[in-house]
Design a protein that fits this description.
Number of strands: 34
Largest sheet: 5 strands, mixed
Number of helices: 38
Shape: globular
CATH class of the domain at 49-327 and 356-458: Mainly Beta
CATH topology of the domain at 49-327 and 356-458: Neuraminidase
Radius of gyration: 32 Å
Structural class: alpha+beta
Oligomer: single chain
CATH architecture of the domain at 49-327 and 356-458: 6 Propeller
Distance between the termini: 62 Å
CATH superfamily of the domain at 49-327 and 356-458: TolB, C-terminal domain
Helix content: 25-40%
Strand content: 15-25%
Strand order of the largest sheet: 10-11-14-15-19
């Protein structure tokens, strides 16, 4: 059974708001039943592919690339880490798409169950409920950790062994993060953080301890797992999780957020677990630089937004919520520019903005340790950009520069490219190791680890020195040598020395180091901080005294690190005077860390007042800091907010509503939000629109129910703030009283905000049966069914004004009236149907609304509509007539199916199938109609734009004779790449297709393809794709993405008859030759007569993507793409 650790105490570093409508449910005890024994993984046989692929890589000319390991020694490598002896611990995943699933592959019922899940147990329960017997497939395969080792020293692995496997429980995620450290191997595999140990030395883990349980409350997207393991300079274990959320009970603390990605930290024994930062989407890897700054690359949401390069700060919220994914426009994330870099007038104050928008698929991440490569890599990050295919994937290199307390990104390069890298790490030998997924998204049972060596650096004595130091057990070093190593050029060596000195409580050596210069001094401070966190050590007072003294050092960075470390001090060692002094420091970075320390100090004082009864008052200094910052530096502002949230009580914060400075009021709002205080409502009436909006966000999004009435009342105050209007309208909808229904109707009638007027009417229309998903956020916030009468009464009162509004408001009014059975609108609808100069689609909608209202006028209007010159109105008349008298409808529908206009034919066939579904007595007539249509289809008499409607309508009847006719039709179609899919070529709706392309989450077209200035760059741009591509090409590209890969995106490997292998991007091909663009950018022509073997690369587009759309949706998508000329 997983161990339950009770040691340690938790410093409360974050103040989490209560963001559910109810107290969060406690996470259940982890299950003790082991999953079934998995099947052996399917791993490809050995081949020369790994070596041949090197020819297609782009990498610096000063380096060599060698294949370290390939299948069958390693397969499907998700992540890996190298220990101090050079052994590679590799996470291999064999459960992608068959155990580790993705919401995009399931239906709406599944999605809503996932959005409702609050615990891991909830997730397992809905898997069992919705999958039935198929749930057994989720345990059929496992993920595992493999150890690779080069034992003969030739630069290639010659030893491969599974270290741990059996990670195949129903609730298990991907084994996505591994870290080996001094005999412990940590593994992040949802729902656990595992600590594995090999007790008997046989190379296999024989002890498994679950340090925590409760990661991964939801399914979300595949790959949004727990990962990113790294030990920070403070000696703690840091790791991340994607937006699958968490619900963790640990040491009497409850960490709960089911809708956000986060970064955690804890001690190496698992104690003192903290949520360090939240609001991330999928931060796959973490990296510290030489100064202890933590960074990550956060993936985008596939909606035309960009991935984010994030400075991960304590208590930070970067603004993403998992439920945004299922709003077509991604809700506030896009609407309110949360993913954009810093803009003081736009960036929400509760968020910490990204440094930059960068990359497309950020995954593996490392900061250069200082040795192994050329000086060109000094102070640089290396980030894997995973795009699903090697042709446009690789490793980016860049650096950051301080900008106040924040950073800017500089000098982006692509030194390693055309490799599908998932992770990377520097070995003790100075080489850069890179894992290659090979191709696709789910794993092909293949995998490679490559080793990049700088030829000059490899000869360096320093590199050999690093290898020797790292390989030597830390306990074997004398203290004097460890002290000396704190100044070593390689960060790994410095950290090893620091951690060992701290482990031995070598206070004297660390005190001396804290007087050194440069990086060695910082390691001295960090080491003293490690000792200071161990309350049972005599030298604690010495450590904190020295750190406090360093807050007066002449070096800005030393003062900053001293303040940062002081935030971990126990109350009796926190020097409030020093912190207050640093809040006014000349360095923004010092002020930021001092503010974090102030929050911690004040929090401790408020929770347990000092014995002498005196407490420090940080408020005045924090307010001064915020005034002077004037919202210019987002990190200083964040520090001020954290300081206020921790050090200032709720009443005093609320009093800041009267402060003259906007920056102070804005920070006070967010501080109250962090405290979960409903006093934030006092700021709703603030004269500054940003302050008022921030208060609205806090009340609505958290939510803080006590402020909801005040938020709803803002609907009566004119504003240009669309985000505030949305939330105020929704507050009225959620409160749900007759008064609030009246407020919505009045707003719809009188406001000038046209789209929000439509929103208000849609709220009234759905009043009786509100969706369980919040209208603004998409969060699971169910409301009970309600009486429709208040909404109907409110709509009726403002009907004349609404019907004189813009067309969109009139149309929404008609829909709401029909839904609420407001028959007062009948005369207006009848007049609309009769008006020749009205838009045909509006006249058709009015006729259908009259039928929904069971209006007497419908009967007299049907002949008028049936004889109209407009096809859409004629189609509506048939629909209404058939709905009123289904038994006698089929002669009429047969005429519609034979009509001359597409919309009439398609609608008639749809209505025929719908009637048969609702009225079993009509099935025989429906079968006869579709049998006739199929006969005509086989004989070529049905227009191409209606073929799919005939086939799909017939299939709905589930009739054997009709199925035979469908088969007969398919049999006569050309045996080409399309075959039975040819009915998808014509008859779609381009407007609906555009929505699918840009907004449908389950296919995420816009993630990879750009149209105009919107979309990603993973795949080819489609702005003018139909200018030289026909419908057949477009459809085949969707159904079979590997059949025809776009120019400049198809990679191939060829081997000539003299045994030479070439790789590159296929630029041109004729009957006689192929022309490749090599990794060096050279065009190479190869005669086909000399080619002995040829292997094409695969498209990054998933083969099964089309299965996520219905046939009609595919037809719409083709229609839209065909318009792009």
């Amino acid at each position: 059974m997983p161990r339950q650790s009770l040691s340690g105490t938790l410093p409360i570093l974050l103040i989490c708001a209560a963001f559910m409508l109810f107290s969060p449910p406690l996470q259940a005890v982890p299950p003790t039943e082991a999953p079934p024994t998995p099947e052996a993984p399917k791993i490809a046989e050995a081949s020369d592919e790994g070596n041949e692929a090197i020819g297609g890589f782009q990498y610096p000319k000063s380096m060599d690339c060698r294949l370290f390991a390939a299948e069958p020694l390693v397969a499907n490598p998700v992540a890996f880490q190298i220990d101090d002896r050079g052994r590679l611990y590799v996470c291999e995943s064999f459960r992608q798409g068959r155990g580790v699933t993705d919401n995009r592959k399931h239906d709406q019922k599944w999605l809503e169950a996932d959005l409702a899940a609050q615990t891991v147990a909830d997730r397992e329960a809905f898997h069992r409920r919705l999958l039935g017997d198929k749930v057994a497939e989720y345990t059929r395969y496992d993920d595992q950790i493999r150890v690779l080792e080069d034992r003969d020293g030739d630069g290639a692995a010659d030893f491969s062994q599974v270290f741990a496997n059996g990670f195949n429980a129903i609730v298990d995620g991907t084994a996505a993060g591994v870290l080996a450290h001094q005999g412990d191997v940590f593994l992040t595999c949802i729902p656990h953080l595992w600590r594995l140990r090999d007790q008997d030395g046989d190379g296999r883990a024989d002890q498994r301890d679950s340090l925590h349980y409760g990661y991964g409350v939801r399914v979300a997207f595949r790959g949004h797992d727990s990962h990113g393991l790294i030990i920070g300079p403070d000696g703690r274990l840091y790791f991340s999780i994607g937006d699958r959320g968490y619900n963790i009970e640990h040491e009497g603390r409850h960490h709960f957020d089911p809708a956000s990605g986060a970064v955690f930290r804890c001690e190496l024994d698992g104690s003192n677990l903290e949520v360090f930062a939240r609001g991330l989407r999928n931060p796959q890897e973490l990296a510290f630089d030489d100064y202890g700054n933590l960074f990550t690359g956060d993936n985008n949401s596939d909606s035309g937004d960009r991935a984010r390069w994030v400075y991960v700060v304590q208590g930070g919220d970067t603004g993403w919520r998992m439920y945004y994914q299922y709003l077509n426009d991604r809700g506030p994330f896009n609407r309110e520019q949360i993913w954009h870099p810093w803009n003081k007038e736009v960036t929400p104050a509760y968020t910490v903005p990204p440094i930059a928008n960068f990359a497309d698929g950020p995954s593996g991440l490392v900061h250069y340790p200082g040795t192994g490569l050329s000086d060109e890599f000094k102070d640089r990050f290396l980030l894997c950009d995973f795009r699903g295919g090697p042709a446009n994937s690789g490793i980016r290199s860049f650096r950051v520069e301080p900008q106040g307390a924040f950073f800017s990104m500089m000098d982006d390069q692509q030194p390693f490219w055309r490799i599908l890298a998932t992770d990377l790490a520097f070995g003790p030998d100075g080489a850069l190791y890179v894992s290659d997924w090979v191709n696709g998204w789910e794993g092909e049972g293949k995998g490679r680890i490559y080793r990049f060596i700088d030829r000059e650096a490899a000869k360096s004595e320093l590199v050999r020195n690093v290898q020797q130091i790292l390989a030597k057990p830390p306990a074997e070093f004398p203290l004097a040598e460890l002290e000396q190593l704190l100044g070593h050029p390689d960060r790994r060596v410095r950290l090893k020395a620091q951690w060992e000195l701290a482990a031995r409580t070598a206070t004297t050596e660390l005190l001396r180091a804290s007087e050194f210069e440069g990086l060695a001094q910082l390691h001295g401070i960090w080491g003293l901080g490690q000792i200071g966190r161990r309350a049972n050590v005599e030298q604690v007072e010495l450590a904190w005294s020295r750190i406090t003294a360093l807050t007066e050092d002449s070096n800005d960075e030393v003062r900053a690190q001293a303040c940062k470390t002081l935030a971990d001090a126990p109350q009796r060692f926190l020097n409030a005077e020093a912190i207050i002094r640093c809040l006014a420091d000349g360095s923004p970075r010092v002020r930021y860390f001092a503010a974090i320390a102030a929050g911690q100090c004040g929090r401790l004082q408020r929770s347990a007042p000092p014995a002498n009864g005196t407490t420090a008052d940080f408020q005045a200094s924090l307010v001064k800091l915020l005034i002077e910052n004037a919202d210019e530096d987002p990190i200083v502002r964040h520090g001020g907010i954290m300081g206020l949230a921790g050090a200032v009580d709720e009443r005093s914060l609320a009093a800041l509503a009267k402060h003259a400075d906007r920056s102070v009021r804005l920070a006070a709002v967010v501080a109250l939000r962090k405290q979960g205080s409903e006093s934030v409502a006092q700021f709703l009436s603030d004269a500054d629109p940003q302050v008022s909006l921030e208060a609205a966000r806090a009340i609505h999004d958290t939510p803080l129910e006590g402020g909801m009435k005040a938020l709803a009342a803002l609907i009566r105050t004119p504003t240009d703030s669309d985000p505030l209007l949305r939330r105020s309208l929704n507050a009225n909808f959620r409160l749900g009283t007759p008064e609030h229904a009246m407020s919505l109707a009045r707003f719809a009638a009188e406001s000038t905000a046209e789209q929000r007027r439509v929103d208000a009417l849609e709220m009234l229309a759905s009043w009786a049966e509100p969706s369980s998903r919040d209208r603004v956020l998409g969060a699971w916030r169910p409301l009970p069914p309600r009486d429709a009468a208040p909404a109907a009464s409110a709509l009726r009162q403002f009907l004349p004004s609404l019907l004189s509004g813009p067309q969109s408001v009139q149309d929404a009014t008609i829909k709401a009236a029909a839904a609420l059975q407001v028959r007062d609108i009948t005369p207006t609808l009848a007049a609309l149907v009769k008006t020749d100069n009205e838009a045909p689609h509006r006249r058709a909608a009015a006729l259908i609304a009259l039928q929904q209202l069971e209006a007497a006028e419908t009967t007299e209007l049907l002949p008028l509509a049936a004889g109209s010159e407009w096809p859409v109105l004629r189609a509506a008349s048939r629909r209404v007539s058939a709905t009123r008298k289904p038994d006698g409808a089929f002669d009429l529908l047969a005429k519609g199916a034979a009509a001359g206009e597409t919309v009439e034919r398609q609608d008639a066939l749809e209505v025929a199938a719908e009637i048969a579904d609702r009225n079993p007595d009509t099935r025989r007539q429906a079968q006869a109609l579709f049998a006739t249509q199929l006969d005509q289809l086989v004989s070529g008499k049905v227009p191409a734009d209606t073929a799919l409607d005939v086939i799909e309508g017939a299939r709905r009847l589930k009739d054997e004779q009709l199925d035979q006719l469908i088969a007969a039709y398919h049999a006569q179609l050309p045996a080409d790449g399309l075959g039975a899919q040819r009915p998808l070529l014509h008859g779609g709706n381009a407007d609906r297709g555009q929505v699918i392309f840009f907004e449908r989450t389950n296919v995420s077209c816009v993630r990879c393809h750009k149209i105009g200035d919107r979309g990603g760059e993973v795949g080819p741009a489609l702005t003018k794709v139909a200018s030289d591509k026909n419908r057949e090409y477009l459809l085949e590209s969707i159904l079979k993405p590997n059949a025809k890969i776009a120019k400049n995106f198809e990679s191939i490997q060829v081997r000539t008859d003299d045994g030479v292998a070439y790789s590159g991007i296929l630029k041109r091909e004729t009957e006689d030759l192929v022309e490749l663009m090599t990794a060096e950018g050279k065009l190479l022509s190869i005669s086909k007569d000399t080619i002995d073997a040829r292997k094409p690369g695969l498209s990054a587009m998933p083969e099964d993507l089309h299965k996520r759309l219905s046939p009609f949706e595919l037809r719409d998508l083709v229609e839209y793409l065909s318009t792009l000329k």
